[in-house]
Target: Cytochrome P450
Amino acid sequence: MDIATIVNGLLGPEGRREPYPLYEELRALGPVVQTDEYMVMVTGHEEADEVLRTPAFGVIDPELATRFEPDYLEHPGQTLLGDSILQRNAPDHGRMRSLISSVFTPRRVAALEPAVTAAVDALLDELAEHGDGPVDFLDAFAFRLPIGVICELLGVPEQDRHLFRPLAADLTVTLEALVEDAELVAADRAAGELSQYFAELAARRRADPKDDLVSALVATADADPQRLSDTELLANLALLLVAGFETTGNLLGNALALLLRHPDTAARLREGALDPAALVDEVLRFDSPVQLTSRIALTEGLTVGGMPVPLHTGVLLLIGAANRDPRRYADPGRFDPDRAAGRPLSFGGGPHYCLGAQLARLEATAALPALLRRFPDLAAAGPAVWRERLVLRGYRTLPVTLTGGAAEPSSR
Ligand code: HEM
Model:
């Protein structure tokens, strides 16, 4: 297969649902492949890791985005996260990231463990109310848990939490490689609503601080506005919210779909014979909720895996492919929670390494064994349907019954 056919395939509906065969076609051409004059694609684990750890491969910040997409600034759906750490390079990135990490600390996350366990139990109680009927696991559990957790951490009041799943779904379409006009309109609207929401919440916390992340970030920003402007504050709050649940919801969905297809693994997890952390790492490797990210050469003279990457050449890092690199993982297409092969690239690496990795792991390791113990007969209740997204990989629906098998586990 030639490169153009592979790339078109990945952008099409079938490739977005099932990218793995196309990744292998690409890998057959080498771990780093030049797609055209402006772009290389990386499927190799070592090469992708090297790019992530090399600051001279930067993210496409607003200034670069404006250069390549002249109407970039007209779309809040694109610019909102452009002011966050996700889309800034040094020195802005380090300035903002050190501020955010100073309030989003490992201690604060670890202290959440009892609250996460309580949230899991409460959601399982609610799930039990569905009785024998089929229920969509994503609606009823997978998204509700991380939305509740990140909102609790940020200090978003309970009555507002239902607003965010549709807004995040609309906004994150701008992370995809191809965005249709109607999707961009919806993303712009979502960005407007999210920044207005956080502007109002920040104002309320400024007047009446509480023990939450919004209050802590507002206080830090107010103490030294040079270190965090108002726009940056809102952008980073929106990022924390969206990144905090969109990916984790998909992790839980992808994990359950795999457990339904691997009943022996599910049984071991339920019985305490499999370390939940190992299971979660293998789900992250095998079916990563983030499948790709990109970088751009910020200086001359860079190379990846020996291939020259001239200034302003884009680098697409296919995380989902790197996680199945046979040079790194033996028999990579086999789901095997016992492989203990080190952490996959699903949380990125280098300066932009995911700030929420610890939190996502905490939620998934608390939720999955508890779910299987509470509902030992949990089974698929019809085909699981993928969302047609390449970057953020997850299911649209994942119907299950809590009390016993109605259908063969399958996906389409
Ligand atoms: C399974 C769940 C998650 C996955 C797979 C994931 C994945 C990622 C990846 C791949 C990146 C790096 C992007 C890049 O380098 O271009 C990233 C960055 C980030 N993630 Fe996560 N994430 C998850 C959960 C979370 C959670 C729960 C939070 C917040 C509470 C979060 C907050 C962030 C933030 C703030 C960044 C930007 C860091 C920076 O640019 O310096 N993520 N995440």
